[in-house]
Amino acid sequence: MELVTPGIGLMFWMLVSFSIVLYILKKFAWKPILQSIHDREDSIEAALRSADKARDDMARIQADNEKILNQSRIESEKILRESKELGDKYIADARKLANVESTKMIEEAKRVIESEKVAAINQVRNEIAELSISIAEKLLKSELTDMSRQSKIIQNSLDNFRLN
Amino acid sequence: MRGKGFIHLAIILLGLFLSVQTFAQHENESKFNAGSFIIDHIGDAHEWHIVTIGETHISVPLPIIVYSKFSGLSFFSSGRLAHGESYNNFVLEHSGENKGKVVENIEGSKMTELISKFDTTEFSELLTNLNDQEFVAAKRDTLIQQFVNKDFASIEAYLSDKQFYYVPLDFSITKNVVALWVSLIILLVVFLTVAKSYKERQGSAPKGLQSFMEPIILFVRDDIARPSIGEEKYHKYMPYLLTVFFFIFINNLMGLIPIPPFGANLTGNIAVTMVLALFTFVITTVSGNNHYWTHIINTPGVPWWLKIPVPLMPIVEISGVFIKPFVLMVRLFANITAGHIIVLGFFSLIFIFGDMSPAAGFGASILSVAFVIFMTMLELLVAFIQAFVFTLLSALYFGLATEEPHHH
To answer: A32-70 pLDDT, tens per residue?
Structure first.
């Protein structure tokens, strides 16, 4: 029976001592402890979050880099291609121009040659004509003394001309 | 492995040592009484018995503080009451219904001065406190008749040479109070140190004692308070829950160490568990919100005829308010006391067999110590579980008291 009868003295001391210790621990132990744990948890969470963010940023930057790199590669290829095309075009143009020019020159040359030839032929013809005239003069002078011979020469000359 | 072996050896030696001293203690008494042996060990005491060597009891006397309505407040060492001695009419009873209590013996002449102010009930109560109970048995009716007739002179004639005993209010610093203070000092030292290292090592990882305590603190917070009370309100109750958890845990553990200043059965004392339960009850009642009280007085979801005309549900619910802390009190008290009783029971076996023959005592001691080791391991587990259960249930009651109504 004594076991289940609470003693007033122990109850009193328990009530007083426990209350005091509860108050002291609450004020000087539990408050700072729980606050520190809470703060630390907050800072760890913040650190984790910022690490996550940094990782995301990193990934994004890497993706950006990749993109820029790709873009620049495409760009450089394009520039290369364009320049090559341009070069080809220049060469082609130059070639065409040269062709045209050379053709023109050849044409010119041909025309000059033709005209020279015509001139030369004309000259030759004139000279031949003059020669012929002088020959004819001479012949005429010599031949005209003999009528039959005269006509024979004229005939011969004319035959020769026809051959030319 | 070596350390473990050493501990086992130490426990066996301790068992043997205890057996030797208790033999000595009970040699001059008739037989070993297991019942009183156990009750003496789990109960409170006015002195702290350390060891008995041969016939010499070595114990630390503790202060006795008693308040008597006859002699007022008295304060003296329990050493003055040792060996049945009396001091200022106070004695320590060693048998009878007041066994272990400080009792004041009052002269009949002093008592009779007051009798004229008493009523009949008070007078008959007074008679039960007369030391000479044979006299009371014979003369009770006569004395009461004389009292009713206001024949105080005859009563004085009968009682002036007798003695009354009176049990004063006892606020002594008993063994349990000392154990209580020791445990509270340990709590203060440990947690103020831990709090200091938290302040010094702000934001960094815990170290030393701090890292030993932090998981337990987090356990109380995350596995007891948070799920039971809820995220918004648990902060308010954390200091009490932590204090009560560590108080019960440390005292359960201290109760298992059989060396002073440990080994008092503090959490197995109903006064202590009653105060703890009272704290939980007061906090629950004070924090009870509208929703909580509505639930008790007008329980929703219950047929009306359970409330009107006979308020059956309100009665059940209001009983529940008191039964909850009562159960907390009894559970802790019974679990810890039962553990101690079992351990002491195994030790008693040694002496019971030892009374038959010393050889049987030695034989039983091997078996008993083995069982005591097993029980102590179990009690280590119980020490934690009971601290956990008390804290968890307190938290659940706070959670019920502060619960907000659900919007369905």
So the answer is: 999 999 999 999 999 999 999 999 999 999 999 999 999
How far apart, in whole angstroms, are the C-alpha atoms of residue B135 and residue B164? 12
Beta-carbon count within 10 A of A126 CB:
10
A144/A45 Cα distance (integer angstroms):
141
- Rounded to whole angstroms, the Cα distance separating B164 from B110 reads 10
| Distance in Å, alpha carbon of B210 to nearest chain A alpha carbon | 10
Residue B37 makes CB contacts below 8 A (sequence gap 6+) with B22, B344, B348, B351
Q: What is the pLDDT of residue B218?
A: 95
Residue in this structure with the two tokens 């006299």, named with its chain if needed: B135
Number of domains in chain A: 1
Three-state secondary structure call for residue B101: coil
Residue of B99, B177, B213 best to disrupt the A interface, most CBs of A under 10 A? B177
Check B184 against A18: CB less than 8 A apart. Answer: yes
A-B CB pairs within 8 A amount to: 125
Q: Please give the structure tokens belonging to residue B71.
A: 């002699």
| B-chain residue closest to A42, CA distance | B203
Residue A153 has pLDDT above 80, yes or no: no
Of residues A100 and B140, more confidence is placed in: A100
Q: Tokens 């356990």 map to which residue?
A: B219
Instruction: Write down the pLDDT at residue B161.
Output: 77
- Per DSSP, what are the bridge partners of residue B170? B66
Half-sphere exposure of B10 (CA within 13 A, CB side): 9
Tokens of A59: 């990934």
CB contact (8 A) between residue B169 and residue A9 = yes
Instruction: Give the whole-angstrom CA distance, residue A23 versus residue A39.
Output: 23
Contacts of A44 in chain B (CB under 8 A): none
Domain boundaries, position A100: 15-163
Question: Do the bridges between strand B102-107 and strand B47-53 make them parallel or antiparallel, or are there none, so unpaired?
Answer: unpaired
pLDDT tens, position by position, B228-241: 999 989 999 999 99
The model's pLDDT over B274-318, given as tens digits with 9 standing for 90+, comes to 999 999 999 999 999 998 998 888 888 888 888 888 888 899 999
**pLDDT above 70: residue A126:** yes
The span from the CA of B38 to the CA of B110, in Å, is 39
Of the candidates B53, B49, B43, B74, the one whose C-alpha atom is nearest the C-alpha of residue B62 is: B49
| Spatial CA neighbour of B400 closest among B325, B313, B307 | B325
- The answer as to whether A135 is a domain residue is yes
ipTM of the complex model: 0.85
Asked if the structure places residue A5 within a domain, the reply is no
Please tell me the predicted confidence (pLDDT) of residue B25: 46
Residue B399, SS3?
helix
Tell me which chain A residues have a C-beta less than 8 angstroms from the C-beta of B173. Answer: 13
Report which of B289, B310, B322, B308 is spatially closest to residue B400, judged by C-alpha positions. Answer: B289
Structural contact between residues B260 and B179, judged by C-beta atoms closer than 8 angstroms: no
